[in-house]
Design brief:
five-stranded antiparallel sheet, six-stranded antiparallel sheet
């Protein structure tokens, strides 16, 4: 099942969807960007598979206000955690970015089970309005 979000220049393929997790393979073409956006209902883990000089950004609240964190694919850490409600974006240059997203529900019921079944990141999205 393909999932495509036209405004974000991404093409996604669902690899597995279960009660607690949803796994997708995403492709972001070269020389493009994903604008700052956030997801209200799930936490994401991004696993970068390929992307020469691709940049992943996330805005975190700190003691001195908000700041951006930038990661390049060649850095030692290729797995990035993005909690729900945190704005993030991506930029590619000469090569595309290929990555996995593993999403999980950020809400649990009184029994500790997910309050809802996680779905594609493209279904739960809000762009940054500056």
């Amino acid at each position: 099942m393909f999932t495509r979000h036209h405004s974000l220049n991404c093409l996604g393929l669902v690899l597995w969807s279960g009660r607690r997790y949803h796994v997708e393979l995403w492709y972001l073409r070269s020389d493009s960007d994903v604008p700052y956006h956030r997801h209200y209902n799930h936490n994401s883990t991004i696993v970068v598979l390929f992307g020469h000089n691709a940049e992943l950004w996330k805005t975190m609240a700190g003691r001195k206000g908000e700041y951006d964190m930038i990661f390049k694919w060649w850095q030692r850490r290729r797995i990035f955690s993005i909690p729900y409600n945190v704005f993030h974006s991506a930029i590619t240059h000469r090569t595309p970015l290929i990555f996995l997203t593993i999403t999980s529900s950020c809400l649990v019921d009184v029994k500790g089970k997910p309050a809802f079944r996680p779905t594609s990141a493209s279904n739960d999205i809000e762009l940054w309005k500056r």
